[in-house]
């Protein structure tokens, strides 16, 4: 069992969240100043515009960017499902194995403190965790949550339902999200397919 959650409980998890869940690496090459390379799945492209947070990467479908007039490589493939992806890279030393800590993590994220930490507005009552699961158990684990956040969203293009995942990469914890579009929502299973591809792309880029 992972000691950071079993010994520290909710307090340690809250500190962990403040250190890496909400931090993020520059769009562009995908190389963040924190030593992790962010890579997009086939058919998705990293947004090239400047971001205020140097640890945050925004990713959209290559087709959508091309239609918006954003120059892209000649061949980028077709996205599995239309979705908005993000990656946030945590601080050095935040990466810890998640395998074996599923029960504690699930309990925390379903608590008021955990839901407040997940909420885009910091309001626990607006968040519902519908599913929690562990992926890649033999590689340190990827802890994934399918949740609903009814907090207001800038632009109003994204759905309230989305996948959020934590995965250790080198010595940092990385947070990934997969969110559907209101005009074309992704189902839970479709989003999980994209998340699985996203995790695989990150793994390949950080051997």
Q: How do you describe this structure in short?
A:
With about 210 residues, the protein is α+β, with helices and mostly antiparallel strands.
Please provide a written account of the structure.
This protein is of the alpha+beta class and 207 residues long. The protein has six helices and seven strands, in the order H-H-E-E-H-E-H-H-E-E-E-E-H. The protein has a seven-stranded antiparallel β-sheet with strand order 1-2-3-7-6-5-4, sandwiched between helices. Helix 2 (9-21) packs parallel to helix 5 (112-118) and helix 4 packs across helix 5. The radius of gyration is 16 Å and the shape is globular.
N-to-C CA distance: 25 Å
Helix content: 25-40%
Structural class: alpha+beta
Total count of helical runs of at least 4 residues: 6
Query: Strand content of the residues, in percent?
Result: 25-35%
| Largest sheet strand order | 1-2-3-7-6-5-4
Radius of gyration: 16 Å
Report the average pLDDT across residues: 81
**SSE topology string:** HHEEHEHHEEEEH
Total DSSP E strands? 7
**Weakly predicted, low-confidence segments:** 1-15, 17-31
Largest sheet composition: 7 strands, antiparallel
Tell me, briefly, the overall form: globular
Query: Assembly type of the shown chains?
Result: single chain
Search tags:
globular; 26% strand; 6 helices; 207 residues; 7-stranded antiparallel β-sheet; alpha+beta
List the helices and strands and how they pair.
Elements: H1 3-6, H2 9-21, E1 44-46, E2 56-61, H3 62-67, E3 84-89, H4 102-110, H5 112-118, E4 127-135, E5 142-149, E6 158-169, E7 172-181, H6 188-205
Antiparallel strand pairs: 1-2, 2-3, 3-7, 4-5, 5-6, 6-7
Helix pairs in contact: 2-5, 4-5
């Amino acid at each position: 069992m992972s000691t950071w959650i079993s010994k520290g409980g909710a307090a340690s998890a809250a500190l962990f969240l403040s250190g890496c869940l909400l931090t993020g690496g520059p769009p562009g090459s995908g190389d963040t100043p924190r030593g992790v390379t962010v890579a997009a799945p086939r058919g998705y492209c990293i947004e090239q515009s400047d971001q205020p947070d140097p640890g945050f990467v925004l990713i959209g479908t290559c087709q959508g960017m091309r239609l918006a007039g954003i120059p892209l490589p000649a061949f980028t493939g077709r996205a599995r499902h239309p979705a908005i992806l993000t990656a946030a890279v945590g601080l050095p030393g935040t990466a810890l194995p998640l395998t074996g800590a599923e029960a504690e993590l699930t309990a925390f994220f379903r608590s008021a403190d955990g839901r407040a930490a997940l909420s885009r507005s910091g309001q626990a009552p607006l968040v519902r965790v519908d599913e929690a699961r562990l992926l890649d158990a033999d590689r340190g684990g990827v802890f994934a949550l399918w949740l609903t956040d009814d907090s207001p969203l800038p632009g109003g293009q994204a759905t309230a339902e989305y996948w959020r995942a934590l995965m250790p990469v080198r010595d940092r914890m990385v947070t990934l999200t997969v969110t559907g579009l209101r005009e074309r929502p992704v189902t839970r299973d479709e989003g999980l397919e994209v998340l699985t591809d996203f995790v695989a792309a990150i793994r390949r880029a950080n051997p």
